[in-house]
Here is the input.
Amino acid sequence: MPDRAKVLVVANRTAESPELLDALRSRTVRGPCEFTLLVPSTPHGLAWAADMHAGGEEAEEHRLAFVEELREEGLNVGAAKVGDGDALAAIQDECNFNEYDELIVSTLPLKVSKWLRIDLPRKAEAATGLPVTHVVGSES
Here is the structure.
Protein backbone atom coordinates (compact mmCIF):
# COMPACT_ATOMS: atom_id res chain seq x y z
CA MET A 1 0.00 0.00 0.00
CA PRO A 2 1.36 3.44 -0.87
CA ASP A 3 2.13 6.04 1.81
CA ARG A 4 -0.99 7.88 0.76
CA ALA A 5 -4.02 5.99 -0.55
CA LYS A 6 -5.42 7.29 -3.83
CA VAL A 7 -9.19 7.52 -3.57
CA LEU A 8 -11.46 8.17 -6.55
CA VAL A 9 -14.64 9.97 -5.46
CA VAL A 10 -17.54 9.74 -7.91
CA ALA A 11 -20.52 12.06 -7.45
CA ASN A 12 -22.77 14.36 -9.42
CA ARG A 13 -25.95 15.75 -7.87
CA THR A 14 -24.77 14.70 -4.39
CA ALA A 15 -21.30 16.23 -4.79
CA GLU A 16 -21.77 18.95 -2.20
CA SER A 17 -23.91 16.83 0.15
CA PRO A 18 -23.10 16.76 3.88
CA GLU A 19 -23.27 12.94 3.76
CA LEU A 20 -20.44 12.73 1.24
CA LEU A 21 -18.38 15.32 3.09
CA ASP A 22 -18.79 13.27 6.29
CA ALA A 23 -17.70 10.10 4.45
CA LEU A 24 -14.57 11.83 3.13
CA ARG A 25 -13.73 13.20 6.57
CA SER A 26 -14.17 9.68 7.97
CA ARG A 27 -11.89 8.29 5.26
CA THR A 28 -9.08 10.69 6.21
CA VAL A 29 -9.27 9.43 9.81
CA ARG A 30 -8.44 5.88 8.59
CA GLY A 31 -5.13 7.04 7.11
CA PRO A 32 -3.44 9.45 4.73
CA CYS A 33 -5.16 9.75 1.38
CA GLU A 34 -5.49 11.92 -1.69
CA PHE A 35 -8.88 12.37 -3.29
CA THR A 36 -9.55 12.69 -6.99
CA LEU A 37 -13.04 13.93 -7.76
CA LEU A 38 -14.86 12.60 -10.79
CA VAL A 39 -18.18 14.18 -11.75
CA PRO A 40 -19.81 12.20 -14.57
CA SER A 41 -21.73 14.61 -16.81
CA THR A 42 -24.94 12.62 -16.37
CA PRO A 43 -27.96 14.69 -17.43
CA HIS A 44 -31.22 14.33 -15.55
CA GLY A 45 -34.87 15.21 -16.00
CA LEU A 46 -36.03 15.95 -19.53
CA ALA A 47 -32.45 16.66 -20.62
CA TRP A 48 -31.74 12.94 -20.21
CA ALA A 49 -34.22 12.03 -22.95
CA ALA A 50 -33.32 14.92 -25.24
CA ASP A 51 -29.53 14.86 -25.13
CA MET A 52 -27.24 12.36 -23.39
CA HIS A 53 -24.50 15.05 -23.36
CA ALA A 54 -26.63 17.74 -21.73
CA GLY A 55 -25.10 17.31 -18.27
CA GLY A 56 -21.65 18.81 -18.90
CA GLU A 57 -22.37 22.33 -17.70
CA GLU A 58 -24.10 21.16 -14.51
CA ALA A 59 -21.30 18.66 -13.84
CA GLU A 60 -18.74 21.44 -14.15
CA GLU A 61 -20.70 23.56 -11.63
CA HIS A 62 -20.74 20.63 -9.16
CA ARG A 63 -17.02 20.00 -9.74
CA LEU A 64 -16.04 23.60 -9.01
CA ALA A 65 -18.27 23.93 -5.93
CA PHE A 66 -17.23 20.57 -4.50
CA VAL A 67 -13.48 20.98 -4.94
CA GLU A 68 -13.69 24.41 -3.29
CA GLU A 69 -15.69 22.97 -0.37
CA LEU A 70 -13.24 20.09 0.15
CA ARG A 71 -10.18 22.32 0.04
CA GLU A 72 -11.84 24.70 2.55
CA GLU A 73 -12.28 21.64 4.79
CA GLY A 74 -8.55 20.98 4.48
CA LEU A 75 -9.01 17.71 2.58
CA ASN A 76 -6.27 16.66 0.17
CA VAL A 77 -7.73 16.95 -3.33
CA GLY A 78 -5.29 16.10 -6.09
CA ALA A 79 -7.56 16.62 -9.09
CA ALA A 80 -11.18 17.23 -9.99
CA LYS A 81 -12.55 16.16 -13.35
CA VAL A 82 -15.76 16.02 -15.34
CA GLY A 83 -16.25 12.60 -16.93
CA ASP A 84 -18.40 10.81 -19.48
CA GLY A 85 -22.18 11.03 -19.14
CA ASP A 86 -22.25 7.26 -18.58
CA ALA A 87 -21.03 7.04 -14.97
CA LEU A 88 -19.62 3.51 -15.31
CA ALA A 89 -17.73 4.47 -18.49
CA ALA A 90 -16.40 7.57 -16.71
CA ILE A 91 -15.13 5.43 -13.81
CA GLN A 92 -13.56 2.88 -16.15
CA ASP A 93 -11.88 5.61 -18.23
CA GLU A 94 -10.43 7.23 -15.12
CA CYS A 95 -9.22 3.90 -13.67
CA ASN A 96 -7.68 2.85 -17.00
CA PHE A 97 -5.44 5.92 -17.06
CA ASN A 98 -4.71 6.37 -13.35
CA GLU A 99 -4.04 4.12 -10.37
CA TYR A 100 -6.43 4.14 -7.43
CA ASP A 101 -6.64 2.16 -4.22
CA GLU A 102 -10.37 2.59 -3.63
CA LEU A 103 -13.57 4.20 -4.85
CA ILE A 104 -16.22 6.22 -3.06
CA VAL A 105 -19.46 6.40 -5.05
CA SER A 106 -22.09 8.89 -3.92
CA THR A 107 -25.67 8.48 -5.16
CA LEU A 108 -29.07 9.93 -4.50
CA PRO A 109 -31.46 7.75 -2.45
CA LEU A 110 -32.82 4.63 -4.15
CA LYS A 111 -36.21 6.08 -5.16
CA VAL A 112 -34.62 8.80 -7.33
CA SER A 113 -31.15 7.50 -8.20
CA LYS A 114 -30.51 6.43 -11.79
CA TRP A 115 -27.10 5.20 -10.62
CA LEU A 116 -28.62 2.83 -8.07
CA ARG A 117 -31.17 1.57 -10.59
CA ILE A 118 -28.23 0.36 -12.70
CA ASP A 119 -26.40 -0.86 -9.54
CA LEU A 120 -23.44 1.45 -10.18
CA PRO A 121 -21.55 0.80 -6.91
CA ARG A 122 -21.47 -2.98 -7.52
CA LYS A 123 -20.72 -2.61 -11.25
CA ALA A 124 -17.89 -0.16 -10.50
CA GLU A 125 -16.38 -2.64 -8.04
CA ALA A 126 -16.66 -5.47 -10.57
CA ALA A 127 -15.22 -3.35 -13.40
CA THR A 128 -12.25 -1.94 -11.46
CA GLY A 129 -11.51 -4.59 -8.85
CA LEU A 130 -11.31 -1.81 -6.27
CA PRO A 131 -13.13 -1.72 -2.95
CA VAL A 132 -16.14 0.60 -3.19
CA THR A 133 -17.72 2.62 -0.40
CA HIS A 134 -21.28 3.67 -1.27
CA VAL A 135 -22.60 6.91 0.21
CA VAL A 136 -26.24 7.93 -0.10
CA GLY A 137 -26.30 11.71 -0.27
CA SER A 138 -28.92 14.38 -0.45
CA GLU A 139 -29.23 16.54 -3.56
CA SER A 140 -27.33 19.79 -3.31
